[in-house]
Amino acid sequence: MSTFLKNAWYVAALSPDVGRMLKPVRLLSESIVLYRTLDGQPVALEDACPHRKLPLSMGRLKGDAVECGYHGLTFDCAGTCIDAATQTRIPPLAQVRSYPVRDQYGLLWIWMGDPDRALTTPIIDIPTYNNPNWHITQGESMQVDCHYLWLVDNLLDPSHVAWVHRSSFAGAGTDNTPLELTVTPQGVVSSRWLLNQPPPPFYAPLVKFKGNADRLQHYEVQYPSLAVNMGIYTPAGQGGPNMQEGPDTYRMISYNFLTPIDEDHSQYFWLQHRNTDPQDQDITERNAKGARMAFEEDRLILEAVHQGMKNKTTPTTGLLLDMAANRFRKGLAELIALEAAAPQTTRP
Q1: pTM value surpassing 0.70
Q2: Quick check: helix, strand or coil at residue 214?
Q3: Among residues of the chain, what percentage have pLDDT more than 70?
Q4: What is the pLDDT of residue 139?
Q5: Are 7 and 339 in contact (CB under 8 A)?
Q6: All CATH 3.90.380.10 domain ranges in the chain, comma separated
Q7: Residue 143 and residue 151: Cα distance in Å, rounded?
């Protein structure tokens, strides 16, 4: 059975990276070509001409249509063949699949499943996205050569920062403070408060108070692979389950969007969102640099994990910290099984 949930919004690309050039991408083991119409609307088509399966991305744009680079079959934005250059009759099977796409948050989102369900399914909400008191960076991305569920596991595991991110996110208590697991209809949350501890190196220059902090690690993943990692810092004594929100409360939210390329590769997109210094470009650049450095540290680990688990010759063992990831995988598998059993419609 596939490990991909088709009826969901995935990030296909950063919005500025898609324009009036044919952009080939591979998503959920399918080849897709992206481009924009003359008025800027995004288009996603199956990247394979139905004649000899030459990628349409090797052709050219003619207005808002795509011309195949082999024999000139031309397809409109809905995937319908509108011209067969070598003959007067358009072959009735000369069609390619089209996919619903949408620009939001500076990202281009794609729906790979039943197109009718895309009409009624919202993209993840970022409630403070347009709040002028918050700053959000431009989206960034990297390819990670591992199965996307290893990334999901990592984003449900606050403990890994104690070893993988020693110079940035690690801090007192990250190695052994118990975790709280919360299961929601949307996914799973793994979280904990670390009380009365020095802020870790990455956050120490960002918080607006001196001395020790109460720190929340909130690691959440929504189905199928949308992660919300939030750090909250308050002066010591003001945090915990009954947190007292004050002017010194610092929040940093990392929105992480994991798009499977295939079973062995993933595309990792992210946005960094903070509730302070919305106009401070220096802080923005430092945050962006620090985030990429941390994600590169994750990439090295997870690519090695992928190879190790794929080629293992001895048994593996589990840890209690795997509980959130295991619960998420179980819920996702149930959704995939339900999807596989349901009738699907495709476009065109």
Answers
A1: yes
A2: strand
A3: 98
A4: 87
A5: yes
A6: 135-336
A7: 11
271, amino acid identity: L
Say if residues 107 and 34 touch (Cβ distance below 8 Å): no
- What span, in angstroms and rounded, lies between the C-alpha atoms of 140 and 262? 20
Strand residue runs (E) in the chain? 9-14, 23-27, 30-36, 42-46, 60-62, 65-67, 74-75, 81-83, 101-104, 107-111, 135-136, 140-144, 180-183, 187-197, 213-222, 226-235, 250-262, 265-274
Nearest to 294 by CA among 233, 216, 229: 229
**Other CB atoms closer than 10 Å to residue 130's CB: what's the count?**
8
Number of other residues whose CB lies within 10 A of the CB of residue 275:
16
Question: Per-residue pLDDT for 31 more than 70?
Answer: yes
- Please choose, from the candidates 146, 170, 136, 91, the residue with its C-alpha nearest in 3D space to the C-alpha of residue 274: 136
Instruction: Kindly report the CATH class assigned to 135-336.
Output: alpha beta
Q: CA 18: distance to chain centroid?
A: 17
Q: Positive or negative CA dihedral for 26, 228, 321, 225?
A: negative
Alpha-helical segments (H) within the chain: 115-118, 148-154, 161-164, 281-310, 323-341
Q: Mean of the pLDDT values across residues 308-322? A: 96
Q: How far is CA 114 from CA 25, 72, 110, 337, in A?
A: 20, 29, 12, 15
Q: What is the pLDDT of residues 146-188, one digit of tens each?
A: 999 999 999 999 999 999 998 888 888 899 999 999 999 999 9
| Geometric angle at alpha carbon 304, from 199 and 189, rounded to 5° | 45
The CATH number assigned to the domain with range 9-118 reads 2.102.10.10
- The phi and psi torsions of 338 (rounded to 5 degrees) equal -65, -40
Domain with CATH 2.102.10.10 in the chain: 9-118
Q: Is the peptide bond before 224 cis (omega within 30 degrees of 0)?
A: yes
- Of 112, 134, 115, nearest to 336 by C-alpha is 112
- Dihedral sign of CA atoms 144, 150, 152, 155 in order: negative
